[in-house]
Amino acid sequence: YQQITFEMVGLPFKNQEYMLNLCDALRKEAQKKLFQLGVWGNQRVVGLNTGCGPIFATKKWTESGYIELAGKLLALPDVSVILLGGPDEVERNTNIKKAVPAVIDTGTDNNLPEFAAILNQLDLLVTGDTIAMHLGIALKIPTLVIFSSTSHTEIDLYGRGEKLTSDLACAPCYKKVCDSMKNCMEELSTETVYQAALNLLNKINK
């Protein structure tokens, strides 16, 4: 997208990145919120953005996958796992929290600046192709993106993340509802996502 935009206006593209600057007040408020929820400075913080917008609901990984992933990540000695989402993820995040009580739910009613500030506290973001992904890229957060119905070639992680894509012939389909005998999100194993997350975490010195 960035390269295409530059080409449209006749400017040279030199791998320019997104820009998003948060004010100190937002940063401090997010830090305070996570501390009150039980996230402390000596922990690596992994955020699971569990949903997506309603237009392409097929971009959303399975609830059971996030439950299993949260359990695996929390078995690591110095990792906190927080849940992220908006109003559409109330039920999903509640279910994940019930299944894995040790995860920290940051709520689904944060406005966009508050949400961005919470993301800024992360060491790793796991998400689909969503607004959280774009914010994570802009904030230079290592980001693991699960792609399904949309194209991974449109997104540049600037060397700070990893993309997981489906090898099904129908992907990316850009469909709102999956009508295939095999669902690419259901085919994606928790172990695959976990190993990718672990690889990124191992690059982080806390």
Query: Care to count the β-strands?
Result: 6
Helical percentage: 25-40%
Q: Estimate the global geometry from the Cα principal axes.
A: globular
Strand content: 5-15%
- Major sheet, described briefly? 6 strands, parallel
Structural class: alpha/beta
**Unreliable residue stretches:** none
Strand arrangement across the biggest beta sheet: 3-2-1-4-5-6
The span between the termini is: 33 Å
- SS summary, helix count: 8
Secondary-structure element pattern, one letter each: HHEHEHEHEHEEHH
Radius of gyration: 17 Å
Global mean pLDDT: 87
Ordered list of secondary-structure elements with their pairings:
Elements (H helix, E strand, L loop, with lengths): L1 H7 L15 H14 L6 E6 L13 H12 L4 E6 L5 H10 L4 E2 L6 H8 L4 E5 L2 H8 L4 E4 L14 E4 L19 H4 L2 H12 L5
Parallel strand pairs: 1-2, 1-4, 2-3, 4-5, 5-6
Helix pairs in contact: 2-5, 3-4, 3-8
Molecular structure report:
This protein is an alpha/beta fold. 36% of the residues lie in helices and 13% in strands. It has a six-stranded parallel sheet with strand order 3-2-1-4-5-6, with helices on both faces. Helix 2 crosses helix 5 (112-119), helix 3 packs across helix 4 and helix 3 (63-74) crosses helix 8 (190-201). The longest helix is centred in the first third of the chain and has 14 residues, at 24-37. It starts with a helix and ends in a 5-residue tail after the last helix.
